[in-house]
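Q: Two folds, back to back.
A: First:
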Amino acid sequence: MADAPKRPLTLRDVSEASGVSEMTVSRVLRNRGDVSDATREKVLEAAKALGYVPNKIAGALASQRVNLVAVIIPSLSNMVFPEVMTAISDVLDDTPLQPVVGVTNYRKEREEKVLYEMLSWRPSGVIIAGLEHSDASKAMLRGAGIPVVEIMDTDGTPIDAAVGISHRRAGRMMAEAIIKAGYRKIGFLGTKMPLDHRARKRFEGFTEALAKAGLEISDQEFYEGGSALGKGREMTEAILKRTPDLDFLYYSNDMIGAGGLLWCLENGVDVPNDVGLAGFNGVELLKGLPRQLATMDSCREEIGRKAAEIIASRVEAGVEGPQGQKIELTPTIERGHTLRKKPKDAAYPE
C-alpha cells in the first residue's frame, strides 16, 4: 500500500518500463501502426505489470474524471448483492456520482476484463467485492489513482479501503452458538469454495471453533452452481440419509438452508429438537417461510452505504491516494425457529 502511486499511470510510465518511446507505446495500446511483435509484447507486458489502463476519454476530457463509480460484484443472481447495490445507489443519489455495475461470476480472469474496461473510462472511484484478486487486477487498482473500496470482507489487507465483516469471526460465532445449544453431530452443506473466498473463510472459522470444543464436522455435502431451494432439498436429503444421526446442519447460505428446512418439515423431522438448522445472510425474502431459519445478518446494506460514503467524501475532498481505511462491522445471529436456545437435555452442559 505504501508504494501505490498517488496519480494515474501515464504513457510515460509504460514507456520507461518497456524502454520504448511514448509514441510506440501509444501505437501498441491503440493497436495501430507498424510495430514488431517483440516490441508489442514488451509494451503489453510492461503495461500489465504496472496495471496501466488506456484512457478512452477523448479530447478535452482526457485529463478529467467522469462522474461514474465502478461497482464490481460477483453475481446478480445472489440476492445479497442487489441489496448492496441499492444502498450504494441511495447514497450516491445525493451526489453527482452514478454507479455502473460489472459482474465477475466469481472468476478472477473475468474480474480482470471487467475492471480493465471500467477503468478505461476513468471513473471517479471503484467499489469491488472481496479482497482476493489476480496480480493484474491488483496492479490496475493500485495504479488507478482513484479511491478504491473493497467490500464484504475484512479478513485481509485492502489495497486502499475496506468495508465488511470478518467471515472467520462469523463462522466462529455460529459454531459457538450451535455448541452452546447442545448440538454435537454437525454437518456442513455448501458450495464448493475455491471461488467463494468468503464462504471458505466462514467454514474455516466454523471448524476452528468446533475444534476448540473438541468437535469436528461429522459429514459434508458440496455442490457447484447457484444457490437454490431445490438444491437445498436435495443436499439435505442426501446428507441425512447418509448420516442419519446428525443433529445440526450448517448451510453456507440461506437459500439452500431454506430448501433444507422445507425438506425437513415435509419429512417429519423435528426441527430444532432432533435436527437444528442455520444459514447465512439474513435474506428478507425467507421471512415468509412457515418457520424462520436461523441465520446471520451480513450487514450488507450498511456495507453498501459506508462504501459509497467513503467514495463520495473522498471525491468531494479531492483525495485520490490510498488511505488504508478499514471498517469492520459486527454480524448478529438471528436464532429463528431452527436453533434452540438451550440444550435438549442435561447431557449437554449449557
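A: Second:
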Amino acid sequence: MEALASSFWNLCASMGIFIVVGVLIAGILHELVPEDLITKQLGTRGWKSVFKGTLFGIPLPLCSCSVIPFAAELKRKGASEGAVLSFLISTPITGVDSILATYGMFGWAFTFYRVITSSIIAIIAGSLANVLIKQHVSPVAKFSLNPKAQQTIRINNPAPEVNRVRSFSLKRALHYGFVSLLGGIASPLLWGLIIGAFISMMIPGNLSHYFTDSRWLGYLIAVAIAAPMYVCATASLPIAASLILAGVSPGAAFVFLSAGPATNTVTMGVVKSMLGTKALIIYLGSIIIGSVGFGIVFDLFFDATAIRGMLSHQEAHGWIENIGAGILLVLIAYNLIQARFNKKNKSCSGGSCCS
C-alpha cells in the first residue's frame, strides 16, 4: 500500500503544477475567445475550414465528450463533414492543460511531436471526408445514442452559447477552469492517476524484454485499449508514463496518448449518427493508422532510454511540485464532492429523497 501511495504521489507531483496552470490558462482562453467566433469561422464549407478546425481544436480544453455539442453546432451552422471531423479529432488529443502537463512529464520534444502529429491526423481525416463523402447539410439534433448517453452529454456539456458579447471576467475564467473544466475531468483524471500508480507498482520490471521482442504487440494492445476507452488527454498521461517505465516502448505509449483521448464508444456513436458510416470509418481509420504509424516513427527516431530516464528522475520533486500536487488533489476532491452533492440535491428535488 505504501508503494502504491508513493507512486500515486509521484505522478501527481510530476503533472500537478502544470495541470493547475493549464486549467487557469484554459479559463482565461475561454473568456477571451467567444464560442460563437469559432462557429462562425468553421461554419463554412471548403478546404480552409479543415485547417481552421484543426488549428482551433489544438488549444481548446475539451475532452472527447464535451467536444460533441460543439461539433453539433458546427454542423448545424453548415460546416463541411471534413471540418467537423478535423475538429472532433484535434480537440480532444491536445488542449492547453494537456500540452503543459505533457511538457512537464515528457519534455518539449515529445510534446511538440504530439501536437504536430495530432494535427496531421486531423487534417488527413478531414481532407478524406471532403473528398470521399458527398457534402450535404443535415440536422444534428437526432443522435442514435442510448438515452443515458444523450442525457450525460446534454447535462455535462451544454451547447455553446452564440451571439454572446460580454467583457472579460476573471471570476468566470477561474470558475470555468477550476470548476467547469477540471470538474468535468476530475473523475477520469483521478482514475488515470490511480491506474498509472498501480501499473508502476504491479507490472514486472522484465516486461521490457518481452515487448522488445514483440514490439508490434505493444502497438496493437495500445490501440485495443485506447479505442473504446473514455480517457481525456490529461488523464491519459500518468497511464502512458507508467507503461513506459514498465517497459512498453514510448511509441506504443504514444499510440495510447493519441488514440485514447480521440476515441470512445460514445463519440463513435455520435460520429456515425451525425456524419454517417463512411465518416466513422474515416474517423477510426485515420486515428488508428495515424497513431500506430507515428508511434513507429517515434520509436525509430527518439531515444527511449532518455525518455525513461526523464520519467525516472521525476521521483525527486521539489517543494513547488509537491505544492502543485496538493493543490491538484484538493481541486479534484472538491469537484468530486460538489458533483456528488449536486446529484443528491437533484434526486431530493425530484422527490426521491426522504425528509
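Q: And?
A: The mean pLDDT is 76.
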